[in-house]
Amino acid sequence: MCSAAARMALAITALAFASLGHGQECDDPFADNPFFFDPEFQPPPPKKPHVNVIVVRPSAPGPDIAQSETSEVLPRPSRHEERIAAMLARPTKMDIRDMPLCDVVASLRDAAPEVNFHVDQRAWEILRLTRNDSMTLTVDDVPLRSALAIVLRPHGLVAMVRHDALVITHEDEAEYSTMHRRVYPVGDLVQSQQQDSFFALVDAIKTTVNRESWDDKGGPGTIAVVPAAGCLVIWQSPNNHDEVLKLLRALRAAQELRRGE
Predict the structure, then answer these.
(1) Of 138, 154, 176, which marks where a domain is finished?
(2) Are 193 and 228 in contact (CB under 8 A)?
(3) Cβ(96)–Cβ(104) under 8 Å?
């Protein structure tokens, strides 16, 4: 014979099934799970990936500082900085379709795993704010440095080399809080070691590299001439230092063409 407790359990079960049969709903932890209740349910197809391709192609070393037989700038970069400079010079292919900026940055980081990427706090806050702002971009065979600039600058961000890493930061941070000194041997670009012979070179730098950033225009950048060493000592931001180096390389290339005539 069934005990009173067993009879009570059977009665409750019968009432539950009866209520289901009359269309009454019952609370169930799986009620909102279509996979549990509908055996014919087909999950939606995965969303089409936002990025078709981001490729940082390997290439022969470019004319970066690491490959120079004589130092173009002092102090010489560290091994990590040389690696980053070579990576930034590599040709890149990007085909992006409706992708949030922070995901673009993450994909670029994944495309160059040999380089340490760091996003500072202020930049990260901007990336979070633009999380839902998708971008579309197609470039091919451009240096990774240029691709990063196209992606970041509309949002006030820049990529720069700092502390042996590629740092994504706000442009104000890059311009003013990371000012530092570099020494540029330029004896081959002047006619003599007299101080006056350096003035044309100094003028060329100040008039073509971010003119408003120099001290005579109210900016923080300075240039000191050291004729005895055949050097310029320049205090500037990382990006402006890069532009100074590009200018000096272009002048040396023009000088070589003139010698070949």
Answers:
(1) 176
(2) yes
(3) yes
The C-alpha atoms of residue 221 and residue 20 are separated, in whole angstroms, by 80
pLDDT at 232: 96
Give the CA-trace dihedral at 85, 90, 95, 99, to 10 degrees: -10
Q: What pLDDT does 60 receive?
A: 43
Verify that 172 and 188 share a domain, yes or no.
no
pTM of the model: 0.59
Q: What is the mean pLDDT of residues 54-79?
A: 58
Which residues in the chain belong to E strands, given as ranges? Answer: 51-56, 91-100, 117-119, 134-143, 157-162, 165-170, 180-185, 222-226, 231-236
Of 148, 76, 79, the closest CA to residue 114 belongs to 79
**Is the domain of 59 the same as that of 163?**
yes
Query: Domain with 208 in it: what CATH number?
Result: 3.30.1370
- Report the sign of the C-alpha dihedral through residues 94, 100, 104, 110, in that order: negative
Beta-carbon count within 10 A of 243 CB: 16
**How far is the C-alpha of 233 from the C-alpha of 222, rounded, in Å?**
8
Phi, psi of 127 (to 5 degrees): -60, -40
